[in-house]
Design brief:
alpha+beta, 8 helices
């Protein structure tokens, strides 16, 4: 691994000779500028504006442009006289928890390699101290003509260093925040959580640059003199979705479909749709078929039970009523018969009295004393 800087880590009174190497590599496809008329390369030459001629690198120095546009020359002697103790030293100034480092501050990543066998022991000491303390080291170092801030942490068995932006270089996020107040509903958050759960975790090693691969394939096809393979057209959406809920629901369905998790649900939905269509067709044909939801069936069943219970109760109640009615009619009949009996007995007793009185009258008429009284009464009236 090629090093880009040599120096030492200053850990208190311990000095650890190290070499700095890039921890990342760019696979981006680079292009050259050409003249479209004949394909010639376009090159930049360092030309002096005053003499209008190309200047070699040995005659090029540094200068600071003032606010009025004037250039103030800065020599290497001027820069060397500045107090820069971290020119060849990574000076550790503190140890902090990694959570205190904002990812916005993190820049380029480097590996710190041991520079010589004697440096292996102190290197391993610092590495294991960082690992056990679960903290990171904050350090200052100089690279490419300027002092920088760095963070040292353990990656496997290597100490890695990330350049950090100085705190005053981080812009405030308030300028990027939405200017209007937005209220997010719980239902929308639930759908967002469902989408996050559906997308799930991912193996970062499986991610790759599709655009770079397409560019490399196109270049290879041109070199071989063949036509590039047609690019796959991206899936066309259904248009701009204004409703956030609809967008979230569509995203969840699409994510499940891409992972093969929504086939059963889609089949269920299709079956429900087909069932509804077939039910509608059978209803149109005159078949007494009705599809009800489970909740409707439960409510209907409850009403049917209640109506059945009330009907059975009415039947149970009607039986005693019938008995009472029957008893009432029987008592009425007995009362009528008893009244009839009483009237009959009254008539018979009246007849007996009349008969007896008749017989008494007859007896009175046949009496001779009565006849005499009657004759004397008639004589008086005459």
């Amino acid at each position: 691994m090629q090093s880009i800087w040599n120096g030492a880590i200053s850990f208190g009174l311990v000095s650890i000779p190290v070499k700095l190497a890039n921890a990342t590599v760019s696979h981006a496809v680079s292009f050259r500028q050409i003249h479209t008329e004949d394909g010639g390369r376009i090159r930049y030459r360092k030309v002096c504006e005053l003499e209008e001629k190309e200047v070699p690198s040995s005659e090029i120095g540094k200068g600071f442009e003032d606010a009025d546009g004037s250039i103030i020359p800065i020599t290497e002697e001027d820069l060397a006289s500045l107090p820069l103790p971290t020119t060849r030293t990574i000076d550790i100034v503190a140890f902090v928890e990694s959570e205190r480092i904002d990812p916005l501050q993190m820049g380029n990543a480097y590996y710190l390699m041991v520079n010589g066998a004697p440096a292996a022991k102190p290197y391993a000491l610092l590495r294991e101290a960082l690992r056990r303390s679960e903290r990171v080291a904050i350090a200052k170092f100089a690279l490419r003509g300027r002092e920088r801030l760095g963070m040292l942490r353990v990656v496997d068995d290597v100490i890695a260093m990330h350049t950090l932006h100085w705190p005053d270089e981080i812009r405030s996020p308030e300028e990027a925040a939405p200017e209007t107040d937005v209220t997010v509903r719980d239902a929308e958050l639930d759908l967002a959580d469902a989408l996050m759960d559906t997308l799930g975790d991912v193996d970062l090693d499986s991610l790759h640059d599709d655009y770079r691969e397409a560019v490399e394939e196109m270049v290879t096809a041109k070199v071989e003199g063949r036509e590039p393979a047609p690019e796959k057209e991206p899936a066309q959406g259904e248009g701009t979705v204004i409703d956030l809920m609809s967008a979230l629901e569509s995203s969840v369905r699409e994510a499940k479909r891409s992972r093969g998790e929504g086939e059963g649900e889609d089949a269920g939905e299709k079956g429900g749709e087909n069932g509804g269509e077939n039910g509608g067709e059978s209803g149109e044909k005159g078949k007494d078929a009705e599809v009800t939801s489970l909740s409707s069936r439960r409510r209907t069943g409850t009403r049917a039970k209640s109506s059945t219970g009330s009907g059975s109760g009415a039947k149970k109640k009607s039986a005693p009523a019938r008995k009472k009615a029957a008893g009432g009619s029987g008592s009425g009949k007995s009362a009528a018969s008893s009244s009839r009996g009483k009237s009959g007995s009254g008539r018979s007793s009246t007849a007996k009295k009349t008969a007896s009185s008749g017989s008494g009258t007859k007896k009175t008429a046949s009496s001779p004393t009565t006849k005499k009284k009657t004759a004397s009464a008639r004589k008086r009236s005459a």
